Amino acid sequence: MKVLNVVGARPNFIKVGPIHRALEATGVCESLVVHTGQHYDAKMSDIFFRQLELPEPNYYLGVGGGSHAQQTAGVMVAFEEVVEQEAPDLVLVVGDVNSTLAATLVATKLHIPVAHVEAGLRSGDRRMPEELNRLCTDAVADLLFVTEQSGLDNLKAEGVPDGRVHFVGNVMIDSLVRFREKATEIDMLGPLGLEPGSYVLMTMHRPSNVDRAETLQELAEMAGQLADIQPVVFPVHPRTRKNLQAHGYWEDLQGISGLRLLSPIGYLEFLHLMERAAVVVTDSGGIQEETTYLRVPCLTLRENTERPITVTMGSNELMELDAVAVADRVTAIQSEGNSGEVPPLWDGRAAERIASVLINKYHGANESHRVGNKTPGLV
């Protein structure tokens, strides 16, 4: 049984790593990794692949940037050649980036089954390209692997048959569980002059927060106010840094005492910082989940989240990008301590469940096909 695992951005690596290992461990599956190059930085991609114990991609498509249409079309054209060459039994996609949708469309039109990991997540905000990618991918994928109850509820409300849906848990947590101990061996705090629980960890990268002068000004003011409370560690996304520099706020940040500006860092380094932070301030999707598992307080600066269980059960809160309000909330959290619970099946074994479903459904069908089943393909 041959599976093509598609990755397009660094968060995808974190999800595909456990799945690739679980598929290979079955002994009946050939697991290939296709890197579309949607988001690509040679240094950071190499670090993530090495740290997550992923093999070198079997295919690197080198699609790069461009508009949403250009990027999606570029992935489709390049990925179609790979599918036709490899003739896989299954294409597996993760998350909600443009590569996810592009690979899904290619495979389904070539009558190759598609499995979508992290299916059913919805923010309810169609202004977000990720939301459109999620909706379209789930509409045509054959198997939908769900991380939380809201995913089950959303897919049921959208009329998806129960047979296509499997509640398996969260593969992001699989990686965290596997590499948590290894991350403890890294000394990130010493060079920064920090102690565990003594700092705020901040990440910001969403266009709604970093593409406009007014939000960048608020971001800079927030960093300053947080740094007045306790040290702030801020690994700066390339998009964020570029925009801060373009709008004249980068020098302002460099002048803030107590603010540690870092270049992008590896997965293990970030995990080390995240687990030891007093509070995490972010606009990321995956960090909401990781902090929930670690029970580290997290403030997500967005109007909505596609991962509501991190709010209803976990340690995550939604807030506006408001410097004063965020600083006040961080101050209040200091006296509250850890909160929240770990959601069901976030136990480090989601990838094993995914592999079991895929083998049970498709490996037997594939064997039948090879010994004379006249039905073309796997349906």
- Number-wise, the strands total 13
* Structural class estimated from helices and strands: alpha/beta
Topology as a string of helices (H) and strands (E) = EHEHEHEHEHEHEHHEHHEHHEHEHEHEHH
Extract low-pLDDT stretches: 368-379
Helix content: 40-55%
Shape: globular
Rg over alpha carbons: 21 Å
Count of separate DSSP helical elements: 17
- Distance between the terminal alpha carbons, to the nearest Å? 14 Å
Which keywords apply here?
14% strand; alpha/beta; 7-stranded parallel beta sheet; 13 strands; 6-stranded parallel beta sheet; 379 residues; disordered C terminus; 17 helices
Please, could you describe this protein's structure?
- This protein is α/β, with parallel strands linked by helices.
Topology:
Blueprint lengths: L1 E6 L2 H16 L4 E6 L6 H10 L7 E2 L7 H19 L3 E5 L3 H12 L4 E6 L9 H12 L2 E4 L2 H9 L7 E3 L3 H14 L4 H4 L7 E3 L4 H4 L2 H17 L2 E4 L2 H9 L3 H5 L4 E4 L4 H10 L2 E4 L3 H9 L3 E3 L8 H4 L3 E3 L4 H11 L16 H21 L9
Parallel strand pairs: 1-2, 1-4, 2-3, 4-5, 5-6, 6-7, 8-9, 8-11, 9-10, 11-12, 12-13
Helix pairs in contact: 1-7, 1-17, 3-4, 4-5, 7-13, 10-16
Concise synopsis of the structure shown:
This protein has 17 helices and 13 strands. With 379 residues, it is of the alpha/beta class.
